Amino acid sequence: MDQQIQIFDTTLRDGEQVPGCKLNTKEKLALALQLEELGVDIIEAGFPISSPGDFESVQAISRVIKKATVCGLTRAVQKDIEVAAQALKYAVRPRIHTGIGTSDFHIKAKFNTTQEAILERAIQAVKWARNFTDDVEFFAEDAGRTDNEYLARIVEAVIAAGASVVNIPDTTGYCLPYQYGEKIAYLMNHVPNMDKAILSCHCHNDLGLATANSISGVINGARQIECTINGLGERAGNTSLEEVVMIIQQHKHLGLYTNIKTQMLNPLSREVSDIMRMPVQPNKAIVGANAFSHSSGIHQDGFLKDAQTYEIINPEQVGAEGSKIVLTARSGRSALAYRFQKLGYEFNRNDIDHLYQAFVKIADSKKEVVESDLRAMAEAHVPENAIA
Ligand code: KIV
Ligand code: ZN
After folding, report:
1. Number of domains composing the chain
2. N or C terminus: which one in the chain shows less Cβ crowding within 10 Å?
3. Which residues span the domain enclosing 315?
């Protein structure tokens, strides 16, 4: 039977940390409701101790979200955990997400301490959090660069202390997909109480590998992916929600599924882009403006014969406007004929041959030949049997 991958959305926490993306409570609340509608399993609503505004947002989201789990981030600090618990008081399904850095970089440079002391702090943080909720997630920050043997000891200890989800962040986006996958496989095979919890992938995109690493993680046994709409997040961003969801949907042989309503992906991407004032790159997978545009003659000809020659996803499946045949100097006759037809002009083959000569001259002089250019061409051509 197919296994569910829990989608943990952190647009409102890791995504909102991006300079310029800060949201007020009203905006966060509106987005949280949309995320619930989208079908995410967990909404990371914020970092309650970080500011009174974030506390208020987490509290407001906790009051209205009924189906999804609402999660608050904390450091492995008692006060953080108490404040998060207070902010999550009204949530139907509250989760505390606590943790600490586990790589040598963090242990030595950030905390100036030892592996044993970090292990104790991790256990203590989970115990504090368990005083408030049964749903505790532990993050081993910079797990991507943490030695696997030590990481396995941490994972075993926090599960024994009561964590039901253990997050393995590749905080700096350093891992290669096979390395991240091996890390998850190592934990699955070496942590004796691994059956009492699930592993979560939280990958950053510093080398453009966040999506690939998350998928490698679930192939190797992780059962939760932490991600954001449009891949927003610290520095180069987090794993993009729309990408992992569609990979899982397209590759059914993986035996995995999510509960995401994929038709909402494009509309929600636009909404997040607007509200956070962060444009989406046109060539972004799934939600970019060009994700379903075809501009070269070879591709257009194949696409017009059968869309599946050049499209693996039907745009409707992800709520996109539809496939586009864009006319540039690289376009061919079939695309030109198709676009004329869309405007109501029926030209025969000779007409198209003739019009094509005019078309390439115009196309060479500008980036895209648009509707007004086509109308002008059609009128100037005055074909014998054109019907406008
Ligand atoms: O990237 C990271 O390690 C994080 C943790 C706080 C979960 O965002
Ligand atoms: Zn992160």
Report:
1. 2
2. N
3. 293-385
